[in-house]
Amino acid sequence: MKNNASSSVVTRLDRSRHAAPQVFERLREMILSLELTPGTVLSRAELANRYGLSQTPVRDALMKLGEEGLVDIFPQHATVVSQINVSSALQAHFLRRSIELEVVRTLAEQHDAALIAALRATIARQTELLDLNNYERFALFDQTFHRQMYEAAGVPQLWDLVRRLSGHIDRLRRLHLPVEGKTMAVVQEHTEIVDAIERGDATAAQAALRGHLSGTLHQIEQIRTSHPDFLTDD
Fold first, then answer.
1. Within 10 A of 138 (CB to CB), how many other CB atoms are there?
2. Whether 31 contacts 62, CB under 8 Å
3. Whether this model's pTM surpasses 0.85
4. Same domain, yes or no, for 77 and 93?
5. Which end of the chain is more exposed for a tag (fewer CB within 10 A), N or C?
6. Binned average pLDDT, 10 residues per bin, the chain of 234 residues
7. DSSP code of 219?
8. 40 with 81: CB under 8 angstroms?
9. What distance in Å separates the CA atoms of residue 150 and residue 104, rounded to the nearest whole number?
10. What domain range includes position 59?
11. 93 lies in the same domain as 77
């Protein structure tokens, strides 16, 4: 176990919404962005103080994070941000690739000009961030790009499913983003996918997608070398 995530600053929540989902969403985002790194201890009492809540909604949020494998809960002891499980990451990648290959095939057959324009606009936003090293916003637009495709293919609930199961692969990708040339490669790969969809070339769109999704997995050993305490095969 490493550092303890604590803060004396109260974080305001939307009082028109239930508290537990908001705490879950905020902690999940912090874990996926690696603001909370593997091994960070999450104190229920300190989190309750930070969000101005009782411990019950905090407990519920932590339990949901545990269900996604993002924290390890040791009853009566501590809750700790989990290591990145490589096996879970590979399974999430398999699921996402399987679904998105069908998604891009469907989109290539639709010839939806509005979708093409929307996807290119998202790529343009990513391009603006290339020299800013703003990896959080870059990753956000990456998620937006893929969500737009799921929605256009008429399967937004599958995007929700993929997101729930992708915590480990998302953290691997976040570790990979700062590597020189990675963000530029993502922009180029997104562009290749959209170009193929616009041409109505389902085979090329699937090939571009397959290469795009597999990039981080080819770098697992390098990531493990750079962050030996973050990854586990268990």
1. 22
2. no
3. yes
4. no
5. C
6. 52 76 94 96 92 91 96 89 96 96 98 96 96 91 97 98 95 93 96 98 98 91 93 89
7. G
8. yes
9. 9
10. 4-82
11. no
Q: Where would I find the beta strands (DSSP E) of the chain? A: 4-5, 41-42, 71-74, 78-81, 84-85, 231-232
What token pair was written down for 178?
């700062």
**Which pair of tokens denotes residue 212?**
């795009």
CA 181 to chain centre: 20
One-letter amino acid for residue 154 of the chain: G
CATH number at residue 192: 1.20.120.530
Phi, psi of 201 (to 5 degrees): -95, 90
Query: In terms of Cα–Cα distance, which of 132, 107, 126 is closest to 194?
Result: 107
Task: Record the tokens describing residue 225, joined without a space.
Answer: 């070398």
- Quickly list H helices, 33-131: 44-51, 55-67, 86-110, 113-128
